[in-house]
Specification:
It contains no helices and six strands. The protein is mainly beta. It has one domain. It is globular.
């Protein structure tokens, strides 16, 4: 697998996980760069959980327009 940065907004990063083996599915990755290090906030291939951005409420909706509220089971438009 390799991570491809598809969108970048300030310190925030949105991208995808691209398989290197044919026939294997990919996924997403959302991260923040702080103090020279990259911290992955969410990754996977299903719904992005809203709790992933609890410590980063200013994570741009441009990068992640919606997330799943795991308590209510509903989609939240950010």
């Amino acid at each position: 697998m390799k991570v491809v940065i598809q969108k970048h907004f300030g310190k925030y990063i949105g991208g995808g996980v691209v398989p290197t083996i044919p026939g294997v599915g990919g996924g997403y990755v959302c991260a923040v760069k702080e103090d020279g290090a990259i911290k992955v906030l969410a990754d996977g291939n299903g719904s992005i959980m809203c709790r992933s951005f609890k410590d980063y409420p200013d994570f741009p909706s441009y990068l992640v327009p919606e997330c799943l509220d795991e308590i209510t089971g509903t989609i939240v438009w950010r």
